[in-house]
Specification:
single chain; 518 residues; alpha+beta
C-alpha cells in the first residue's frame, strides 16, 4: 500500500454549510488524491455535517475516511483520534469551516521535502473580516526561530507537521482544554523541530469567520478561559527553560490569553467571577511574568495586569473603567520620564513599581492616543472621524497629526486646541479602503499617527463610549462591499470591509426575517 504524502485532519462539529467548501477544497487539491488521506471526525454533529461527510466518503472512498464519536466539547479529542489513524508522511490540520488554496498541500509538501522541514507554515488569510496576525508571513524563509520571530503570535495548528516528529515525541492535544488545545501541541512541535519554515508566496489557508454563529473561542466563558490560560502558561514553563526563549513565548500568552481576561467585558461579570479571575491572573503574573515580559507588553495590558498583581478587584475595576468610561488618563512627567497616570500610579497603599506605568521610550505613541468623539459616513465617499486628545499642547508637541484605516491614509481637516484638550477631524476616502482590500474582506484598525520628539508615534483610536455601528454599501467594479464602523473586543475603533456574497446575503436575511420568513 502506498503511503500518502499528507494526512489532513478535520474535527467536525456543526459547521454546515461551510463544511462543503472545506471538503471540496481538499479533494480538489493539485497534490492529487492518490497522495492524500483525509480523516474527518464527526464530534456529535446535529446539523447535517455527518451526512455531508458520508457523501464525500462515498464519492472519494480511497481518500476520505469518517470517524464518529459523541460530542466531546472541543477539537482536542477528535484531533487525537484522527492522529491515531493517520498514515501520511506529514499531517495537516484544518478547521471544518475553513478552506485551502488549490495548490496549498502540493506546495507545503514540496517545501518540507526540499528543506527537510519538520514544520511548515503557509500564509493564512482571513475571510469575512476575520483577523489573522500576519507578521510571521512577511517573507518566505527556510528557517524561522520560535524564540526570535513573530511565530509565537501564530500558534494555531494550521500548519504542516512531519508525522515522524509527532510520533517520536508522542505529541497530542490536551483533552481537558475546551479552548486553545492546539497551542501546546504546536508549541512543543516547534520546540522539538529541527527546522521550521514559512511560505509567504501564496494564499494557502483561508480562515473563515462564520456569519451564522460565533466560534467556541469567542463564546467561551471567563473561568474556562482562565483555566486554559493557566494550563498554557504552566505548559510553556514546564517545557522551556527560564530566559529569553521562554519570555518570547509567554509574552504572547500574557498579551493575549491572560490580558483578554481583563478586557472591558470584565466590568459586566458577577462579583464572584471577577474575584476568581483576578485571583487567577494575580497568581500567573506573580509567578511567571518577568520584567522582560512586562517591558514588552502593550500599555493597557501592562497596567491591567499590574492592577491584578498588586491590587484588589476594586482596583482592577477602576483601571478598566478609566479606559472604558473615562478616557485617556493624564500623563505624568517627572524630569525626563513620562508615565501614564492610571489609578494606582504611585499610590503608597499599592506600592506598584513605576515601570508598570512608564511610557518614556514610546512617548510619541502615548501622545498619539486619542478618544473617538464621533464617526459618520459622508455618503459613499468618505468616513469622517472626530477624535479628542486630553492634551491642550498637542499642536505644540506634534509637527503633524493624521488618522488612517490600516494602509488607507486619511486627510486631516483640522487640529484645534482648547483649555481641556485638542480635537482632531479627519476624512478617510472609502475608495482607498477598497483599493487593496483582501478578497475575503478584512478588519482595519483606525489609528492616529503623530510626529513628535523626532519620531512618529501611532496608537489605535479608542472607540466611542457608546458605540453605534454604522455601515454603508460600496461598489467596486461589479462587486458590492459592506463597510461597517464599529469597535473591537479591545474597545478600539475599527472598519470592517466585507464583500457581499450569496452566503452573506442569505445569512443577513435570516437574521432579519422572523422564523419561517413571514
Amino acid at each position: 500500500m502506498t503511503v500518502p504524502d499528507v494526512t489532513v485532519v478535520i474535527a467536525v462539529y456543526n459547521t454546515m454549510p461551510y463544511l462543503t467548501r472545506c471538503l471540496t477544497s481538499l479533494v480538489e487539491q493539485t497534490i492529487g488524491r492518490d497522495r492524500l488521506e483525509i480523516i474527518a471526525v464527526d464530534d456529535g454533529s446535529t446539523d447535517g455535517s455527518g451526512r455531508e461527510l458520508d457523501r464525500f466518503a462515498e464519492s472519494y472512498p480511497g481518500t476520505v475516511q469518517v470517524l464518529r464519536q459523541p460530542n466531546s466539547g472541543g477539537p482536542a479529542a477528535p484531533s487525537n483520534r484522527a492522529l491515531e489513524r493517520a498514515t501520511g508522511r506529514y499531517v495537516f490540520f484544518i478547521g471544518s469551516d475553513d478552506y485551502l488554496g488549490s495548490e496549498a498541500l502540493e506546495r507545503l509538501v514540496a517545501a518540507a521535502d526540499r528543506w527537510d522541514s519538520d514544520v511548515v507554515l503557509g500564509r493564512l488569510v482571513g475571510v469575512n473580516s476575520r483577523h489573522i496576525h500576519q507578521a510571521v508571513y512577511a517573507e518566505t524563509t527556510a528557517d524561522v526561530d520560535l524564540f526570535d520571530s513573530a511565530l509565537p503570535w501564530s500558534l494555531s495548528n494550521t500548519k504542516l507537521f512531519r508525522r515522524e516528529l509527532i510520533e517520536r515525541y508522542g505529541l497530542r492535544y490536551p483533552e481537558d482544554m475546551p479552548v486553545g488545545s492546539d497551542q501546546p501541541f504546536t508549541i512543543e512541535a516547534c520546540v522539538r523541530a529541527r527546522r521550521i519554515s514559512v511560505l509567504a508566496d501564496y494564499d494557502y489557508y483561508f480562515a473563515v469567520r462564520r456569519l451564522n454563529a460565533r466560534n467556541i473561542t469567542y463564546k467561551s466563558r471567563h473561568l474556562e478561559r482562565l483555566r486554559c490560560a493557566q494550563e498554557l502558561v504552566a505548559f510553556v514553563a514546564g517545557l522551556i527553560e527560564p530566559g529569553r526563549g521562554r519570555d518570547a513565548v509567554l509574552l504572547r500568552h500574557f498579551a493575549w490569553e491572560v490580558a483578554k481576561l481583563l478586557e472591558n467585558d470584565f466590568l459586566g461579570l458577577d462579583r464572584e467571577v471577577q474575584e476568581r479571575v483576578a485571583a487567577g491572573v494575580r497568581a500567573l503574573v506573580g509567578e511567571h511574568l518577568t520584567d522582560g515580559i512586562r517591558d514588552r507588553l502593550p500599555l493597557e495590558a501592562r497596567v491591567r495586569l499590574a492592577a491584578a498583581r498588586y491590587g484588589d478587584v476594586d482596583h482592577v475595576l477602576a483601571v478598566i473603567r478609566q479606559d472604558a468610561e473615562l478616557g485617556i488618563p493624564p500623563a505624568v512627567v517627572d524630569g525626563d520620564r513620562w508615565y501614564a497616570g492610571y489609578p494606582g500610579f504611585r499610590d503608597p497603599t499599592l506600592d506598584i513599581p513605576d515601570a508598570w506605568y512608564e511610557v518614556t521610550a514610546d512617548v510619541a505613541d502615548w501622545i498619539a492616543r486619542l478618544d473617538t468623539v464621533s464617526v459618520a459616513f459622508e455618503g459613499t465617499r468618505a468616513l469622517l472621524v472626530t477624535a479628542r486628545s486630553p492634551r491642550p499642547d498637542l499642536p505644540e508637541l506634534a509637527t503633524a497629526v493624521r488618522i488612517d484605516a490600516g494602509g488607507a491614509a486619511g486627510v486631516t481637516l483640522s487640529v484645534v486646541a482648547d483649555a481641556t484638550g485638542t480635537t482632531v477631524r479627519s476624512r478617510i476616502p472609502l475608495d482607498r479602503l477598497l483599493a487593496d482590500s483582501a478578497p475575503g474582506g478584512e478588519l482595519r484598525t483606525i489609528q492616529a499617527h503623530v510626529e513628535a520628539f523626532g519620531t512618529t508615534g501611532a496608537a489605535a483610536l479608542r472607540g466611542p463610549r457608546r458605540p453605534v455601528p454604522r455601515r454603508t454599501v460600496l461598489r467596486r467594479g461589479t462587486r458590492l462591499h459592506v463597510v461597517t464602523s464599529t469597535t473591537n473586543h479591545k474597545g478600539q475603533l475599527v472598519i470592517a470591509v466585507a464583500p457581499v456574497t450569496p452566503s452573506r446575503f442569505v445569512a443577513r436575511l435570516r437574521r432579519r426575517l422572523p422564523i419561517g420568513g413571514k
